[in-house]
Amino acid sequence: MSRYTDDGRSLRLDPEGRAGGYFTHAVYNHWDPYEDIPESMLETDRQRLMDDENATEAEFDALRQTIALFGAGEEAVTEDLAPLSMVLDDINDQMFVSSQIYEEAKHTQFFDRYWREVIDPVAEHHGFEVTAPTDDRYFMPGYAKLFDGTEAAMHRLLEEDTPENRVEAYCHYHLVVESVLAQTGYYGITSSVGEGGPDIRADSARDDFPNLPGLVEGVGHIRSDEGRHVGFGMHKVQQHIAEDGVDPATVQETLQSLMPYVAEIVSDTDDLVDPVALVEYARDKLSRRVEIITDASAEIPDVETLVELDDSPAPADD
Question: pTM here?
Answer without folding.
Answer: 0.89
